[in-house]
Write a structure and sequence with these properties.
Blueprint lengths: L6 E4 L6 E4 L14 H14 L1 E4 L6 H8 L13 E2 L2 E9 L24 E8 L7 E5 H6 L3 H7 L3 E5 L1 H4 L4 H6 L11 E5 L1 E3 L6 E3 L6 E4 L4 H17 L3 E4 L6 E5 L3 E5 L8 E8 L5 E2 L2
Parallel strand pairs: 2-3
Antiparallel strand pairs: 1-2, 3-14, 4-5, 5-16, 6-14, 6-16, 7-13, 7-15, 8-9, 8-12, 10-11, 10-17
Bound molecules: N-oxalylglycine (OGA) and manganese (II) ion.
Length: about 290
């Protein structure tokens, strides 16, 4: 596999790119994808926020080997794993289940002190229609803020928690049933509202409605007002791209650079995805 065969085409103005001319099964072959191809993918991942690959019917072993080209596996504490593969989380909605996983805008694992770098999601079973995943760029969202708002948030930090989502009392966890577990592993941390991307240095708005519980040192009301203002800006600014899956499609997203959400618009149909998440590095404030 030479890098010359690789093609990278942007999916939209602000986020996402399609990568073609690569067979990810080679990740598990001796020598793997090789350092050049790996570097090209890594750069494109940081630049575009999410990479899409089509027609990659790879095995769980090959999926693991591909992920390990980028960082060590960060095992999700709450999702059920794929049988025989503790490093692969199962993102499943059965025909008769009502609630999906990841149905609101979010960034994965921001409740961890060192959040995962990103996730590599592979479609195993897709509904006949629906079940898209929407992505957006929090770098483009930051850039488009007013200078006043940039100044207001420059040195702020937010509390992030997993308790209200995955904890024993969380309604969401009850609805999701045995697709989530390990409620005792919940916890939280704080992160700057604006981080510096670990690879590109680009400023990123690092708050998300799923896991942020408030701004450090602010009252609930003040905090909710500012966060809602930021969330409206992030989702309504045209920084997004909606991806339609086929079996064997892969989306590989950067948790520092994007938000994502899964549409729950396929009642009565099954959807099964395999997710591998890779470890991140300590986040630096942009200020
Ligand atoms: C996830 C997630 C989205 C989807 O796996 O982290 O949010 O479309 N999934 O399944
Ligand atoms: Mn997610």
């Amino acid at each position: 596999m030479t890098t010359q065969q690789l093609t990278i085409e942007p999916a939209s103005e602000h986020v996402g790119a399609f990568v073609s001319g690569i067979d990810l099964a080679q990740a598990a072959a001796p020598g793997g994808l090789g350092p050049e191809t790996t570097a090209v993918i890594k750069d494109a991942w940081a630049k575009h926020g999410v990479l899409f690959f089509r027609e990659q019917p790879i095995t769980p072993e090959q999926h693991m080997a591909f992920a390990e080209h980028f960082a060590a596996i960060d095992i999700n504490k709450f999702f059920a794993a794929v049988d025989g593969f503790p490093g692969i989380a199962q993102v499943l909605k059965e025909k008769d289940q009502e609630h999906n996983i990841g149905g609101g805008w979010h960034t994965d694992h921001t409740y961890d002190a060192v959040p995962a770098r990103g996730s590599i999601l592979l479609a195993r079973e897709t509904p006949a229609t629906g079940g898209d995943t929407h992505f957006l760029s929090v770098g483009a969202a930051y850039d488009a803020l007013t200078e006043d708002l940039k100044a207001t948030i420059a040195t702020l930090e937010a509390h992030h928690s997993s308790e209200h989502v995955f904890g024993a009392k969380a309604e969401h966890a009850k609805e999701i049933g045995d697709r989530f577990g390990n409620a005792d592993a919940v916890g939280g941390t704080t992160h700057p509202l604006v981080i510096k991307h670990p690879e590109t240095g680009r400023k990123m708005l690092y708050v998300n409605a799923a896991f942020v519980t408030g701004i450090v040192g602010w009252s609930d009301d003040e905090s909710t007002d500012l966060l809602n203002q930021l969330y409206r800006h992030i989702v309504n600014g045209g920084f997004d791209y909606r991806f339609e899956w086929e079996v064997g499609s892969i989306a590989m997203w950067d948790n520092c650079a994007t938000w994502h959400m899964a549409y729950n618009d396929y009642p009565g149909q099954r959807r099964l995805m395999h997710r591998i998440t890779v470890e991140g590095v300590a986040l630096d404030a942009a200020a």
